[in-house]
Amino acid sequence: MSFFGKLKTRLFKSSAKLDQGLDALVSEGEGESDAPQVPPPADPAPDTPPREAPERETPPSPDAPVKVPQPAEPDLPTPGAPQPGPDTSPPVDPQPERPSEMPGPAPMGLPPIGDSVPEGAPPEAPESRGPGLFGRLMGRGAGEGPVARRVLDDDMLEELEELLIASDMGVETALRVSANIAEGRYGRRVSAREIKELLAQEIARIMEPVARPLPLYPSKPQVVLVVGVNGSGKTTTIGKLASQFREAGKSVVVAAGDTFRAAAVEQLQVWGERAGVPVMTAPEGSDPASLAFEALTKAQAEGADLLMIDTAGRLQNRADLMEELAKIVRVIRKKDPDAPHNTLLVLDATTGQNALNQVETFRKLADVSGLVMTKLDGTAKGGVLVALADRFGLPIHAIGVGEQIDDLAPFDPEEFAAALTGLDP
Ligand SMILES: Nc1nc2c(ncn2[C@@H]2O[C@H](COP(=O)(O)OP(=O)(O)OP(=O)(O)O)[C@@H](O)[C@H]2O)c(=O)[nH]1
């Protein structure tokens, strides 16, 4: 199955929810339908929606400050209160600028992913996807019968905002996206399909600038430090990436830097075998920084292209974690002053809005250069990726939609937008 096919099928929970919600949104307030298609009035509304003094407090202005609900605490030991808001604190450990020091990155991204479906083959449609709850109730399948339309007014906009917030897009982003959809269309009759297409366009527009594959630099070995809370999918992601780089002809060394859990080391060894790459380990409880140093020595001696270092996600407290990551960085810089060349933060999509807190926290602990979002399969919270892109603008290098070795692919904004809204790309 193509990766888009998997993404669409496995994003079922979120896309079905949005898909059905948008169908219901239009059907609920539907007064008229297209039989025949009635063109919109010549000029039904000025471009700026003449929304009367809204009872609700959210103007459609993109810049207007909005109340953002406080997400739950990240799954991290937090001795003090969380620090919401942009990260303005200086880096924990004085660290020289990362990629700018590097010789220009080669125009390479993640190696291509094995894809058994020939190009151009239609993506597999999810079995349970249909014309939507209301559509089905009213017997409106795709292409059958009249197309339901609803006037895009304050009520509909409010419902749209709620639907987007429920998909974990975050309040701020949901308001901005809804306002953009309404612009120039306020007072017009729109179909669910039109709303889905507009929504997909908005999502793709937000995601486009952050869809950047992991940059590969000419210097060898390129050191990739992988951070994230326990269980976010670090080990699995390292295994998948190592396998893909290996298939692309790169030599890879992996260091099992989570020396606190024997199970984590074993799991990485299993992935190493699957991917055909050596995994360097150290006895349980030993210093991860010295393992990282040894691994870099080995990777340099062998002329490896990449060294990927796994790290522990949870220590006694945040200060410990910060100190441990800083120590790894300090030590590997004795061998290569530019290392690590990438610091990947792995996030679990099922944590929803909590992922936003994790980004803020880890940006204080490490010089995060890019994100990988795992477990987009089977979650109703895929919209959080849009919120992350909108809020932080950090590159999203790859997304994971399963536990198999080829269930990780470079992030494609249009495919993601189509899958999330239940459209075909
Ligand atoms: N469904 C699904 N499961 C995933 C995905 N990525 C990882 N997992 C699973 O999530 C669980 C945790 O993944 P790990 O790779 O062990 O996470 P970790 O961050 O290394 O966690 P620790 O080893 O505890 O530090 C495992 O059962 C993985 O199989 C994904 O994209 N989709």
TrEMBL record:
Keywords of the record, alphabetical order, are:
Cell membrane, Cytoplasm, GTP-binding, Hydrolase, Membrane, Nucleotide-binding, Receptor
Q: Name one GO molecular function term.
A: GTPase activity
Residues in SRP54-type proteins GTP-binding domain copies: 221-422
Query: GO CC annotation: what is one?
Result: plasma membrane
Intracellular or extracellular location(s): Cell inner membrane; Cell membrane; Cytoplasm
Stated EC number for the protein is 3.6.5.4
| Alphabetized Gene3D superfamilies for the sequence | P-loop containing nucleotide triphosphate hydrolases, Signal recognition particle SRP54, nucleotide-binding domain
PANTHER family in alphabetical order: SIGNAL RECOGNITION PARTICLE RECEPTOR SUBUNIT ALPHA
Q: What is this protein called?
A: Signal recognition particle receptor FtsY
Organism of origin: Allosediminivita pacifica
The record's gene field reads ftsY
